[in-house]
Amino acid sequence: MARLVTNSLQLCVSQLKISSKILDSRKSPCIQCIRCYRPRKPFWLPMAKSKMFRIPKKPCIPTEERIELERLYNVWRTNVKSIQHYYKEQLMAQTTGPEVIEERRQRAIEHQLNCV
Fold it and tell me: Where is it found, in Gene Ontology cellular component terms (predicted)?
C-alpha cells in the first residue's frame, strides 16, 4: 500500500514537474491526483432533442386519497394561520401597550438628560 502511494506521488511529481524538495518541506502545496475524470456536457450547449419535448406523466392519485390530502392540508394551514395570528397579537401587545409606550418615553427622557 505504501509503495502504491509513493508510486502515485512520484507520478504526480513527474506530471506536475514539482521538485521533491517542495513536497518534503512543511510548506508543501496541497496536491491531489485525479483518478477518474467523467466528462459532462458543457452548460452552454442546448438540451438534447430527445429530451426537449418529454412530458412527464401526472401521478394518478385516487379520489378518496386526494380528498383526504386536501382535508389534511386545510387543517394544517388553519393551524399555522392561527399560530401566526397568536404570535402577531402577542407582539402587538408587547410593542403598542400603553405601559410599554410610557416606558419608552421615560427611557428617551432619561437618555436625553444623560446626554445633556
Answer: mitochondrial small ribosomal subunit
